[in-house]
Amino acid sequence: MSVEDAARRPLPAPDADTAAFWRGLQEGKLLLQHCRRCRHVQYYQQATCRQCGSEELEHRPARGRGKVHSFSVVHRAPGPAFKADVPYAVLLVELVEGPRMISTLTGSNPADVTFDMDVELTFERASDDITLPRFRKA
Ligand SMILES: [Zn+2]
Fold first, then answer.
1. Cis-peptide into 61, omega within 30 deg
2. FRET pair for 56, CA 20 to 30 Å: which of 7, 9, 67, 76?
3. How far is residue 101's CA from residue 45's CA, in Å, rounded to a whole number?
4. In the chain, at which residue ranges do the beta strands (DSSP E only) sit?
């Protein structure tokens, strides 16, 4: 890996299972999968319901609200690409729909994050193809 590559942030590579999810983010929507059979809601995209195994899944945009279930403040960059970002807060957000997702805080001091803090979804365009879901204090 060259120095330039190492300094570039790694971005997700959408595949067939996750293409709709990444397209949704580009359109300003965080898509959750709702099971038509058992009503389970899941965040991470997969072909079947994790609760009942049904394939009858439907994409619906999240309302974009949640609470900080857990968090960690990163002071040492995991690689050169993240050096400019430290310190930053990695959040485990519990969405109002139920699923929990890992993301990062934007727009306020990471030292101000608390458990159960209300957060709202925001979108960060990282490249022409990739928009990342992030959260800010609500
Ligand atoms: Zn189900």
1. no
2. 67
3. 12
4. 31-35, 41-42, 57-61, 65-74, 88-95, 100-104, 118-125, 131-137
Distance of CA 52 from the midpoint of ligand 1 (Å): 4
Q: Averaged over 80-108, what is the pLDDT?
A: 95
pLDDT tens digits for range 19-36: 889 999 999 999 999 999
Q: How far is the CA of 58 from the centre of ligand 1 (A)?
A: 11
| CA of residue 114 to ligand 1 center, whole Å | 33
Q: Token pair of 46, please?
A: 């997969």
Residue 60 makes CB contacts below 8 A (sequence gap 6+) with: 31, 32, 34
pLDDT above 70: residue 44: yes
Are the beta carbons of 38 and 8 closer than 8 angstroms? no
Q: Is the pLDDT of residue 2 over 60?
A: no
